[in-house]
Automatic annotation (TrEMBL):
Listed GO CC annotations: outer membrane-bounded periplasmic space
Signal peptide: 1-23
Biased composition range(s): Polar residues: 66-76
Protein name (Swiss-Prot/TrEMBL): Curli production assembly/transport component CsgG
Key word Signal present: yes
Signal among keywords: yes
Length: 417
């Protein structure tokens, strides 16, 4: 791709003048391990960038950094501060929307396995959004991988499939209003390049990057995308009947960035029949499949991370903070009372609280932003603001199981002929 750096630089300057913004240096302590010091250092710097910006760069990007090291002594203790060269800042800024300013080496040792271990205190520039007071958890969609797909008689590149699914996931997450969705778009990246080449100050570069660390990252792999056309001939009349169908399979994961733990994973399979794709182009079919796949991932993931919470109570009816698109009218949910926190005995990680099923409730009125439930089992005394509700798997299966369609007369006659 050819970049018009002069125009992009002008656009970058306009962005800076459009409003006040601040860039802060975020300092994190990280460990790194490698076969030698260079590899261990690269591992640690990669981890620091990933923690602050939410973007993973390859080890190669940080393994050949040009460095300027200075030693200082304070209170009898010496330390080494290492600054990153301007050209290498550019590489990291392009990759991550933020960059490493410098780092201090806190510890270096050789393990019994022969590997080098280091601990660094790393300073990373991060953009702080002006006027932002957003306490929502942040999330980004990164690394959706896909092979090439087939759309009738043409090939659809894997990058195009990845881009469509990524955008659909971002849109679905945005509409939940529960996450601050981070956009790693190409326009911001191009503006960064333009401004960096003009040797802007580090803090101004970080402004243009608009990088904000992500709490969660959605990643995954597309198993396959294809749209096919099939035909059959009616023996009696010789008429040729043509039908089309399309499908998309993917494995999607939601990871908590701080601990690198996968909090939610789902295999999604979407299939569209002839009536749903008739007259659509390959791109339109891909977009529709991606939207359906994103919905299959986002809705249950959201309920897992943010279960609906009772906001108000009136007798045996109550409201929760989810509405249209998340809760279906007539669906049955369990009402749970919560107890003590429980912890993993090995990692000491909080596993949440003990939940006890205290009743069942049915959605009787679904509004755009909230839902009214009526208690169908259990005592109204268990209802109070803060109590959580979750969909009951058995009830959901009953409600979602489609009735077996009756075969039409025309279909029976076609089969007979």
């Amino acid at each position: 791709m050819t970049l018009n750096f002069k125009n992009l630089f002008a656009a970058g300057c306009c962005a800076l003048l459009a409003g006040s913004a601040s860039a802060s240096i975020v300092t994190v302590e990280v460990n790194g391990t490698g076969v030698d010091y260079r590899a261990a250092r690269a591992d640690a710097l990669k981890e620091a960038l990933f923690r602050v910006t939410g973007v993973s760069v390859s080890v190669d990007e940080v393994s050949h950094l040009s460095l300027d090291t200075s030693s200082t002594t304070e209170n009898g203790e010496s330390s080494r501060k290492t600054d990153i060269s301007k050209s290498q800042r550019q590489v990291l800024q392009e990759k991550a929307g933020g960059y490493i300013d410098s780092y201090d080496e806190l510890d270096r040792s050789k393990g019994a396995d022969g590997l080098t271990n280091v601990r660094f205190r790393v300073s990373v520039y991060r953009y702080d959004m002006p006027g932002m007071n957003d306490t929502r958890r942040s999330i980004s969609v990164l690394g959706i991988d896909s092979p090439a797909g087939a759309c009738f008689n043409s090939k659809l590149e894997g990058d195009k499939i990845s881009e469509a699914l990524t955008q659909a996931l971002m849109n679905a997450l945005q509409t939940t209003r529960k996450f601050a969705v981070l956009d790693r778009g190409s326009a911001g990246l191009e503006a960064e390049k333009a401004f960096i080449l003009q040797e802007a100050a580090g803090r101004e570069e970080a402004k243009l990057g608009q990088a904000r660390g992500a709490d969660y990252v959605v990643s995954g792999k597309v198993g396959g995308f294809r749209a096919v056309e099939s035909s059959r001939t009616i023996k009696l009349t010789g008429d040729k009947l043509t039908s089309r169908s399309a499908s998309l399979d993917a494995q999607l994961n939601l990871m908590l960035l701080a601990s690198r733990q996968v909090k939610f994973a789902r295999k999604v399979h979407v299939k569209l029949a002839d009536a749903e794709i008739r007259g659509l182009s390959c791109n339109q079919i891909l977009d529709r499949l991606s939207e359906r796949a994103a919905a299959q991932m986002v809705a249950p993931a959201l309920l897992s991370i943010y279960p609906p919470i009772v906001t108000s109570v009136s007798g045996d009816t109550f409201t929760v903070n989810y509405g249209e698109g998340d809760i279906a009218p007539g669906s049955v949910y369990g009402v749970y009372s919560t107890g003590d926190k429980i912890y993993d005995p090995y990692t000491k990680e909080s596993l949440g609280r003990i939940e006890t099923l205290a009743g069942k409730a049915k959605a009787i009125d679904v509004k755009p932003k909230y839902t009214v439930f009526k208690l169908t089992e259990g005592k109204a005394e268990v209802l109070r603001p803060g109590v959580i509700v979750r969909p009951l798997a058995s009830e959901t299966r009953k409600a979602s199981a489609p009735a077996k369609p009756k075969q039409s007369l025309k279909s029976k006659m076609d089969d007979a002929w």
